[in-house]
Amino acid sequence: MPTPTTPQPPSPPARYTVEIKPRAADADGHPDHGSTLRTAVVEATGGTGASGYPRYEGAGVAADIDPRTRAVEAITLDGAELPYGWVAEVAEEG
């Protein structure tokens, strides 16, 4: 009799486009990240970052991205932390 197997989560995507933006909110406190300052296509390294999420690298960006929520959990830009107030997010597909 076959034994049921536990469904495995889908494997993380091979790449994402990450957008670097200058702020978390506008002057009135609304969540408005501003215009994109830089984009980078990052490829899966096959490793896991310090945050515990899959690690992606490319174009001077190293990022840990949660494949379930598409949230950037950790990031460096050209080997350094983002400037205070800047944010990184995964670009919308399409």
Q: What's the N-to-C terminus distance?
A: 45 Å
Spatial sequence of strands, sheet with the most strands: 5-4-3-2-1-6
- Coarse shape: globular
Query: Strand count, sense and closure of the main sheet?
Result: 6 strands, antiparallel
How many individual β-strands?
6
Q: Please, how many helices?
A: 0
Q: What percentage of residues falls in helices of 4 or more residues?
A: under 10%
Q: Which range does the strand content fall in?
A: 35-45%
H and E order: EEEEEE
In the predicted model, the low-confidence regions spanning at least 5 consecutive residues are none
Q: Which oligomerization state do the chains in this entry correspond to?
A: single chain
Which value, in Å, is the CA radius of gyration?
16 Å
| Computed structural class | mainly beta
Average pLDDT, rounded to a whole number, is: 91
